UniProtKB/TrEMBL annotation:
Protein name per the record: Prokaryotic-type class I peptide chain release factors domain-containing protein
Native source organism of the sequence: Pseudobdellovibrio exovorus JSS
PROSITE patterns with a match to the protein in the record: RF_PROK_I (PS00745)
Domain Prokaryotic-type class I peptide chain release factors: 16-32
SUPFAM superfamilies (UniProt xref): Release factor
Family annotation (Pfam families): RF-1
Gene Ontology biological-process annotations: rescue of stalled ribosome
Lineage: Bacteria, Pseudomonadati, Bdellovibrionota, Bdellovibrionia, Bdellovibrionales
Protein family (similarity comment): Belongs to the prokaryotic/mitochondrial release factor family.
Residue stretches of biased makeup (Basic and acidic residues): 113-134
Length: 134
């Protein structure tokens, strides 16, 4: 399920990037910091909010906010778009409900195959030891 968060629920701030880049890095505010509050969101239902809070608990700051900082690209627009896409992917992935596994018994044929392969392997190893003894 692809989930898209509206721009008006996201707080964006820009800062200078760190690292190499010379004069360009020193003069431009190209790093983007994106902040999204899960509890204040109007597009997420209460159940979805709980699920996102639980799944993304390791990424949260101030109990319910996701903070992303992207400075991969040289321009602010690209970093902003990248951060927005990453946030939407994070939320979409957190909302996926995994299918419950139904435990099953192995089929008789697969059990027989496994036992046959074990017998074959033991036969190979036994033959190796007989060859060495002579």
């Amino acid at each position: 399920m692809k989930f898209i968060i509206p721009w008006n629920e996201i707080e964006i701030s820009v800062t200078r990037s760190s690292g190499a880049g010379g004069q360009h890095v020193n003069r431009t505010n190209s790093a983007v910091q994106l902040r999204f509050s899960i509890s204040k969101s109007l597009v997420l239902s209460d159940l979805q909010k709980q699920r996102v809070l639980k799944k993304l608990s390791h990424r949260l700051v101030q109990e319910d906010e996701i903070l992303l900082r992207i400075e991969d690209e040289r321009d602010q627009k690209s970093n902003k778009q990248k951060a927005y896409e990453y946030l939407n992917k994070l939320i979409s992935d957190a909302l996926i409900v995994p299918k419950k596994r139904i435990p099953t018994k192995p089929k008789k044929s697969s059990v027989q195959k496994r036992l046959d392969s074990k017998k074959k392997q033991s036969e190979i190893k036994r033959n190796r030891s007989e060859k060495i003894k002579w």
